[in-house]
Design goal:
Immunoglobulin-like; elongated; 295 residues; Coagulation Factor XIII, Chain A, domain 1; mainly beta
Length: 295
């Protein structure tokens, strides 16, 4: 005959097991459908009790089918991260007082881009995973290890829609004198934050029937469609503006900032201007102008 347990003990055991199973990160996406391109999203988390010198964070990684969800992804796959207080800055509370549950929002505000890898919001279309982890420091204030908490949660982001690209239009004068600022007119009925225009020499492009195809190479100049400077309007260098479907962008020497491949003045030759809807490589969602000359 099996010994009996009180109802309170049984409920306590059940709650403990349930909490242990829920440890980790969960993307707030009840429909489980791909998240719309450019849309911010929230990740919920459940953690253990706080501990000294331990700082919890949620990170977004590119997801590969060969990587188990209960193992730490490769660092090269990280896209964004936020500490459990919804910022990349130090939290106001001590690690011992850290929350055991909560949520963080991935968007331009708060800054969540992982700048060391030059990754920016919004995420490109594709598969990703959200992971909760603890960053553990020693007494010398050095990171000694990162511990994955629970399992990662996989989700996907929808690529820009074909009509978003089809309805866009980019125009520029057919001939521009060397050392004269370029005036690029862009019409984008469907817009996202961090939308930008790049100038490309046709010798660096794949041209098929007078049309640019394939991923775009490094640009010679670039600028946001809705922010005047390449440094954007929010911390981290992003452009959070997207109001107005018609914009005229002036590209000149100032647009060589934050760009190792840019040059001013542009060399004489044939170019195109392309509006990009991806903020991270591969830059394969775009609409280009007709070819123009720098003379």
């Amino acid at each position: 005959m099996h010994p009996t347990k009180s109802l309170a003990i049984l409920l306590s055991s059940l709650l403990t097991v349930t909490e242990a199973q829920n440890l980790g990160a969960t993307v707030n996406n009840p429909s489980n459908k791909p998240i719309k391109h450019g849309k911010q999203f929230t990740v919920n988390f459940v953690n253990n009790e706080g501990a000294a010198n331990t700082y919890a964070y949620v990170a977004i990684y590119i997801s590969r089918p060969e990587d188990p969800l209960n193992e730490f992804p490769d660092d090269a796959l990280v896209h964004s991260y936020l500490y459990d207080c919804d910022t990349q800055e130090d939290c106001s509370y001590s690690p011992e007082d850290a929350p055991t549950s909560g949520s963080v929002k991935f968007s331009i505000k708060p800054l969540s881009d992982y700048s060391e890898n030059d990754k920016y919001f919004p995420l490109n279309g594709g598969n990703y995973r959200a992971c909760l982890a603890n960053e553990v420091y020693n007494d010398a204030d050095e990171v000694v290890q990162d511990n994955l908490i629970g399992s990662c949660d996989e989700f996907s982001v929808r690529a820009p829609k074909k009509k978003q690209i089809k309805r866009a239009k980019v125009t520029i004068p057919s001939v521009v004198a060397q050392n004269i600022p370029l005036q690029v007119k862009v019409k984008t009925p469907v817009r996202v934050v961090n939308q930008w225009v790049g100038i490309y020499n046709i010798n660096d492009l794949t041209i098929n029937g007078n049309k640019v195809t394939g991923p775009l190479p490094a640009e010679k100049l670039w600028g946001y469609t809705h922010c005047e400077l390449n440094t954007g309007n929010v911390p981290g260098g992003s452009c959070g503006k997207k109001n107005g479907k018609k914009k005229t962008i002036t590209l000149e020497k100032k647009n060589t900032e934050e760009c190792e491949t840019c040059e001013w003045p542009l060399q004489k030759g044939t170019y195109v201007a392309c509006v990009n809807f991806n903020t991270n490589e591969l830059f394969d969602k775009y609409k280009c102008s007709s070819q123009f000359q720098i003379a």
